[in-house]
Design goal:
The chain contains eight helices and eight strands; from the N terminus they run αααββαααββαβββαβ. The chain is α+β, with helices and mostly antiparallel strands. The structure holds zinc ion (ZN).
Length: 216
Amino acid sequence: MSTATVTSEDYLGAIYRLRETPETPLPLSQLQEHFNFTRVSVHEMALKLAQCGWLTYYPYRGVTLTAEGERIAAALVRRHRLWERFLTDMLDLPWDEAHAIAERLEHAAPEAVTEKLAGLLGEPTSCPHGGPIPPALPAQPGVPLSAAGPGRTFAIVRIFPEVPETLHQLAVLGIGLHTAVQVRQQTPEATGIVLSDGREVTLPVAISATMWVTPA
Ligand SMILES: [Zn+2]
C-alpha cells in the first residue's frame, strides 16, 4: 500500500481497529507498523487529521478519535465487514479475497447501499473473520493461539489483524472460524497444533499470534 492510496478514512479506520479501548491513545508506532510508513509521514498525517477535527493527538502517547472521527471510522469498518460477509456468504469467495475486495468496496459503496445490504444479510454482527460489525461491540476477545496452553483444545473465534497471506494459508490448511485446535507444543517461533481430523500442523508464531481462541 503506498501513501497515495491511503486516505484519511483508512487512517481513522486503522485507529478504530488497532486501539485497545476508545479512551486509550493508540501509539503512532502501531500505525507506522500497520501501514509500513515512516515515522514522519504518520506524524504528519496525525497532525492533519487533528486539524480536521477527527482525532486528538497527545504528543509521545498517540491518538484517540474525536466523536466525528469515531463516526467516520465506525461507518468505514461497518461497510468493510458487511461487504466481506456478502462476498463470503453470498458469492462464496475465500475469506482472504473477500478482505482484499472489501478494502476497495468500503470506499466505493454508498452508505445507503451498504445499509440495504445489511438488511439483505439479516443484520450480521460479525465479519467472516470474527470482527464485530459496528455498532456491535467486540465479543470475548480470547487469547492469541501463540499464548494458549499446550494440551488443551481451543476454538478459533477471530483472526486479527486480517493479513491476506495468513488468511490464505489458513484456508489452504482448512482452518477457519470455530475450527477446534489442540495445542501440541509452543516454542518462541511456532505453535504446534493437532486438528480434529488428526493432522499435525506447525504454524509460525507470526500466524498463530493472529488467531484468537477461547477454550473449546
Ligand atoms: Zn473481516
